[in-house]
Amino acid sequence: MSAAIKATKKRAIKAAAKVVSKVKAAAKPSKAKAAKTKATKPTPATRERAAEIETRLRAAMPEPRCELNHENAWQLLIATILSAQSTDRMVNKVTPTLFARFPTPAALGNADQSELETIVKSTGFFRNKAKSIRAASQQIAEEFGGEVPRTLDEIIKLPGVARKTANVVLGTAYRVPSGVTVDTHAGRVARRLQLTKHEDPVKVELDLCALFPQDSWIDMGHRFVLHGRYVCLARSPRCSHCPINELCKAREAPPAATWQARARLEADRVEASFGTL
Ligand code: SF4
Questions:
Q1: pLDDT tens digits, 129-144
Q2: Dihedral in degrees, nearest 10, Cα atoms 161, 98, 221, 149
Q3: Which of 30, 123, 160, 198 has a CA 20 to 30 Å removed from the CA of 14?
Q4: What pTM was estimated for this model as a whole?
Q5: How many helices (H) and strands (E) does the chain have?
């Protein structure tokens, strides 16, 4: 082999090795990228504040519930998929008709796509939602004997099921603390309370999981959602009636009474809403 051919071959091997290492680097997240998905390390002061927030919100909502009407884990899974970009009130209007017409995962898994679309239309994004609830039900019927799986790894693989849906179903139906449920309300409350600076719900969840003990994750998720829905409203938060007012730098008004009195007010407000959605 001539020296020129040898040199060309060497250059080609070097170039190929460079491409392979670039592809490997792209496939493997860099340390910086990986760090971004880690929880922000809470300071002792933030931990202390979080513990006090939990005490007060627990007083306001000792046994918080999910507001999506359901009779079992499968119905809750379907209702939660339908609630994306919609309201619990709207979903609760649709699900009685849906579950009366298709009472089991097998029945919904075999449903006609256009009939499903008509039933779920008012929840928005109805084509995709109809597809997801049909495919998820089919998979539950065929691969899991009609029972929603009880692990995060399995449930997250069902069509249309993201982390929020998985946490809601595992936590509410099975009491499995797989994480803190973060919807638009919970995310807003966590940011106002400076428990996170993230917008991405998965990163918010990581920060909240690092702040609260695992056996609180299910109920704290519900409490953040309900607090955001009934007190820490997006446009005009009810700061003077908020039981965690003193712990919140984003408060827009001073507290109106003791925190215990404000917690009782929130308890009444949340309790009055159940059954009316
Ligand atoms: S004080 Fe106001 S902004 Fe802060 S959590 Fe309460 S309602 Fe929300």
A1: 999 999 999 999 999 9
A2: -50
A3: 30
A4: 0.83
A5: 14, 0
CA of 232 to the centre of ligand 1 (A): 5
Q: How far apart are CA 101 and CA 89, in angstroms?
A: 20
Ligand 1, atom 3, lies closest to the CA of: 251
Q: What is the DSSP letter of 162?
A: -
Distance 181 CA to ligand 1 centre (A): 19
Cα 172 from Cα 169, distance rounded (Å): 5
At residue 6, the pLDDT reads 53
pLDDT at 24: 32
Rounded to the nearest angstrom, the distance between the alpha carbon of 246 and the centre of ligand 1 is 9
121 pLDDT band (50/70/90 cuts)?
A: very high
pLDDT band per the 50, 70, 90 thresholds, residue 39 = confident
Q: Which atom of ligand 1 is nearest to the CA of 249?
A: 4
Nearest CA to ligand 1 atom 8: 232
Pocket test for ligand 1, best of 49, 192, 224, 270 (most atoms within 8 A of CB): 192
Q: Is 164 a catalytic residue?
A: yes
Query: What is the pLDDT averaged over residues 146-175?
Result: 96
Instruction: Give mean pLDDT, residues 63-86.
Output: 96
Query: E-strand spans in 142-208?
Result: none
183 is catalytic: yes
* Interior angle at CA 104, CA 102 and CA 105, nearest 5: 105
For the packed helices 201-211 and 184-192, what is the interaxial angle rounded to 10 degrees? 60
Tokens read off for 137: 């039900």
49 CA → ligand 1 middle, Å? 14
